[in-house]
């Protein structure tokens, strides 16, 4: 049965912003005129504990409320999770994997016995340090996601970031996050067609 | 007393009339009736203080008898009276 | 169907945020709150509306849910539009006062974030909490998603406060699955919502000192039964009021509501009854199977109390098979609570659909589109072979396969 939407699974550690990223991507999808769901998988959450979150994006209303079992995109915010949590669960032959790491895609494939589709690696923590000044890789990973999939409009994400974070982070913080998104998207765009 | 139907009574068990306990004459429950011996009474008003039903009737600040509409005949007044001027008599003697 | 002209904006809300947004627009006079997972975020969001002066609500912090319901009852009796919210064990602790709210005919509206009752202790979704008080005299509605949570809460105020009803309403949404999931919600203009719910004019507020009255007196053999008969009538009257309110809401806001929603049911041979978020997932299963030419359909039950038995029979009587899903068990009964009511409703039909009951999703166990497609297949077999007809079984518990 053909899927009626795109499904993203986020892997991170408590405090890295996996849930925030899942929700931010969902809200950017809304601003892009799409339907969406964003939800975390609740368990015993602590700073540093592995967590999962999900984003669904569709052109039509999303009716189902089951868990995501066969994601179209898997995003790993922390490469120390590779091998320790089952990031390959439910992946199919064209599932895209995106990992925040210094490793090459080939090294990642070997490490986790990846059997899905295209693998992208990106130094999102470095980008976050250069732009935001904190090791929070979630916004650059959303930029990377847009670069790899083109699933939502970058402008929608940028306006969502300004709207959502202006009060909390100020204009400087907003600009830094948008800069992080752009850098990451560009980095992926450069390798995408290779 | 005619009982009302469910359509007639206020909903939720509300009683819309304030102070309607007055209509319920609890004096009916009495089997012993207190009788005052006015000659012996020293108007100390101990009976007034201890009556649980407010049934001691005062006139010009002095003990003048009982409100038999509400007096249940508990006999506390007779028991507490320091000069024993109240005696309890069987109710049937008066009916 | 008239076209709604009310101004609306699309917002990204979790179910809890949608509930809090409805409460902001309702702007109750009093809200008594005590936190419990997964309800906490709803009252957390509402408390920030109070703190920021967005509502004029008197927020009463209490030390338990028993007190939360007691304070809500007190406020409602005083003449306030009063609300609270809870989940699972919180609702269980309110128990005694839940009955008092209904029998005192207080139009309290309470979001319930459906969660499994302990034990063993579990924080995830099932319907055991609300089903546990199905006989308490509260009107009970279940929401499929955040939008319905928002829409149902607004309608609940009107239904509860209707002079022919005057009963409390609990509006359920599935814990975590809806309460913590971000979705698109159409939010209506504040003024339009306030115009729809109107001002609350209590008939006998305790604070009306010119007309003092007695609230909650002892009620014995001579009048208790008449008061119950009135309460029964209030619930009967709610049937029409729920339909009227749903219709008026639809005309004004463009979202149409009835006792239940029929999805490809009219020409279906195999039907399913589900409530809450599973109904949404089941719609996808129905669409998938329809594409394969299978004649399947869904009845999403929105109003569980008063149970719409007459309308339900009309909607399902043509089916060959009917599978009823229950997200809670009624231990020792013939099946889950929804199945019991559905079976009783069908009782007077001479030719009735073959029925089956599945108890699923307890404690948050996932129910996938594929599961629901499989269940439709099971039911098709039951219709053909008669095997499993009338039975109630667990679905998805390891050891039963």
Task: Give an account of the 3D structure.
With 194 residues, chain A is of the alpha/beta class. Chain A has five helices and six strands; from the N terminus they run βαββββαβααα. Chain A has a single domain, classed as Pyruvate-ferredoxin Oxidoreductase, domain 3 (3-Layer(aba) Sandwich). Chain A has helices spanning 18-31, 105-112, 124-131, 138-149, 154-192; strands at residues 6-13, 35-41, 50-58, 73-76, 96-100, 119-122. Chain A has a six-stranded mixed sheet with strand order 2-3-1-4-5-6, sandwiched between helices. The longest helix of chain A is centred in the last third of the chain and has 39 residues, at 154-192. The N and C termini of chain A lie far apart (31 Å). In chain B, the strands form two sheets. In chain B, strands 1-4 form a two-stranded antiparallel sheet. The two termini of chain B are 22 Å apart. Chain C has 401 residues and is an alpha/beta fold. Chain C is built from twelve helices and 15 strands. In chain C, the strands form four sheets. Chain C has a six-stranded mixed sheet with strand order 9-11-10-13-14-15, with helices on both faces.
What's the β-strand tally of chain B? 4
Q: Would you state the CATH class of chain A?
A: Alpha Beta
CA radius of gyration of chain A: 15 Å
Strand content of chain A: 15-25%
Oligomer type: heterotrimer
Roughly what percent helix of chain A? Answer: 40-55%
Largest sheet of chain B: 2 strands, antiparallel
Give the overall form of chain A. globular
Shape label of chain B = elongated
End-to-end separation of chain B:
22 Å
Total strands of chain A: 6
Any idea of the CATH topology of chain A?
Pyruvate-ferredoxin Oxidoreductase, domain 3
